[in-house]
Specification:
Blueprint: H1 2-17, E1 42-50, E2 54-64, E3 67-76, E4 85-86, E5 91-99, E6 107-113, E7 117-121, E8 126-129, E9 133-143, E10 149-158, E11 170-178, E12 183-190, E13 207-217, E14 220-227, E15 245-255
Antiparallel strand pairs: 1-2, 1-15, 2-3, 3-4, 3-5, 5-6, 6-9, 7-8, 9-10, 10-11, 11-12, 12-13, 13-14, 14-15
């Protein structure tokens, strides 16, 4: 009886206190898309600095309710003495939230994103970490008493433009934990089933990323990402060590 009472209390707390994704101005994961997005008339700017002197700038705007459009561009060697190796084309992101989060239902979004991450590898015609391409993702928030707010995310994706195996399906999952209004931890995993084809540089472990977020101003945040914790890649083309990558992301969101 006591156990049932505790379970009911947790369910009531998670349902009544959870915020919708649209009410969380910096709702984003690391590489994986979420079911959230900017509100109508708001824009989101981010700047990443990643290994190899890489810099990636991205801009996303909420054009109408539930619909967002974004652009990104960058390259490696931007920071340093060598000549920059710019990405071959800008990244394009389009997303639409089909279902808003409610007490009973998770949020559901579909979209497209051709922006990969890490080094662009010319001879393989792909990014070190492939772009998601077409995707669908569901997400739900849970507020559990004084423990903080948890978010769960699950999605599937396919990128026929870079997957040799006719756009094989992949899946990803993530959790985020907001300890306070200022501090959050993100854990995401991509199975990388589409990284086992002729242009593969994966070893079948998938990609595990960990992020730490500090929202030090109302709409300004800085993230530290630990990328590829499973050491899934071992390819001389990438010119990487046998360690996980580290990167920094600065995000800012504002309303028009």
């Amino acid at each position: 009886m006591r156990l049932l009472t505790v379970i009911l209390a947790l369910c009531i707390a998670s349902s009544s206190g959870a915020q919708d994704f649209s009410e969380r101005p910096l709702q984003k994961l690391i590489d994986c898309p979420s079911a959230g997005g900017p509100e109508k008339g708001s824009y989101d700017f981010e700047l990443r600095a990643y290994p190899g002197g890489g810099v990636l700038a991205a801009f996303t705007i909420g054009l109408i309710n539930r619909f967002a459009l974004g652009l990104s561009y960058g390259g490696t060697g931007v920071i340093g003495y060598d000549n920059p190796n710019w990405n071959p084309q800008p990244g394009v992101k389009v997303s639409y939230r089909i279902i808003n989060e409610s007490v009973a239902l998770p949020a559901l979004s579909v979209g497209f994103n051709n922006q990969g991450y890490g080094t662009w590898i010319d001879n393989l015609n792909r990014y070190q970490f492939k772009a998601k391409g077409f995707y669908g993702v569901v997400g739900k928030n849970f507020l559990i008493g004084s423990l903080g707010e948890f978010g769960g995310h699950f999605g599937v994706n396919s990128n026929p433009m870079v997957d040799d195996d006719e756009g094989s399906l992949d899946f990803f999952a993530a959790v985020d934990y907001r300890m306070t209004e200022q501090l959050a931890v993100i854990l995401e995993y991509s199975a990388a089933m589409n990284d086992n084809d002729n242009a593969s540089i994966g070893q079948g472990k998938g990609y595990l990323n960990v992020g730490f977020r500090w929202t030090f101003a109302e709409r300004l945040a800085i993230d530290i990402h630990l990328r590829g914790m499973l050491i899934n890649q071992n390819n001389k083309t990438i010119q990487r060590g046998k360690n996980f990558g580290r990167e920094i992301r600065i995000s800012y969101v504002e309303h028009l």
